[in-house]
Design goal:
The protein is mainly α. The protein contains five helices and no strands.
Amino acid sequence: MKHNLDLLNKVRQVAGRHGATPAQVALAWLLAQDKSIVPIPGTRRSQYLQENLGAIDLKLTALDLADIEASLPINAAHGARYTWEGMKGVNV
């Protein structure tokens, strides 16, 4: 858990430079990857929908993108997304 929270703090640093949330940074990062990538975030609350929409206007700099890439390489997070019990509800 500590390892993954350290990764989150790196995203928070980028977010802080822009007055954004970590979720907005994640979505803006996806949008900066390739025009063929279309993030489809899910939410149940309108406040988070509005927050997610803010990612459209968030323009990450080359330094931001480099920081994210260096701090969060592929497979950087540790642990499973769901517990064994939780996996029973996935892909049913």
